[in-house]
Amino acid sequence: AGMFGATVALDPERALGGQVRAGDRVAIVGIVNATGADAETASLMVSNVLITSVQIDGSNGDNPKRKEITAAPTGKFFVPFALSQEDQGKAVATANSAGIWLAADPGSAK
């Protein structure tokens, strides 16, 4: 039912090393700083997230193909994804504060 779109700007290392592509399904891992805690922790926020497109502000390496060694991309990756309203709110808030990472989601392998 009603999915909401949100876009995050990620460094390549936070976007599966720059290998994230439109149509991929990923997990979103949030960096959380517990109230009063000095250390940050990572927490799986949501899985099976559809990446709707990817824009790159910089070089995309050697037009990477999965499972091949390529030059590392540079610049930010602008990654829109589709989420439920609740998950979208959590993802945007976390991306705005401590940050998020995209992870390969083994439960949604193609």
Any overview of this molecule?
- This protein is mainly beta.
- The protein is built from one helix and six strands.
- It has one helix at residues 85-96; strands at residues 4-10, 25-33, 40-51, 55-57, 76-83, 100-104.
- Strands 1, 2, 3, 4, 5 and 6 form a six-stranded antiparallel beta sheet that branches.
- It is globular, with a radius of gyration of 14 Å.
- The protein starts with a strand and ends in a 6-residue tail after the last strand.
- The mean pLDDT is 82.
Give the key terms:
110 residues, single chain, 6 strands, globular, mainly beta
Strand segment count: 6
The number of helical segments is: 1
Please state the average pLDDT score. Answer: 82
Q: Describe the oligomeric state of these chains in a short phrase.
A: single chain
The proportion of strand residues reads 35-45%
Uncertain runs are none
Judged by helices, strands and strand pairing, the structural class is mainly beta
Nearest-angstrom radius of gyration? 14 Å
The biggest beta sheet reads: 6 strands, antiparallel
Percent of residues in helices comes to: 10-25%
Helix-strand sequence: EEEEEHE
Distance between the termini: 22 Å
Set out the fold topology.
Blueprint: E1 4-10, E2 25-33, E3 40-51, E4 55-57, E5 76-83, H1 85-96, E6 100-104
Antiparallel strand pairs: 1-5, 2-3, 2-6, 3-5, 4-5
Summarize the structure.
The protein has 110 residues and is mostly beta strands. The chain is 11% helix and 40% strand.
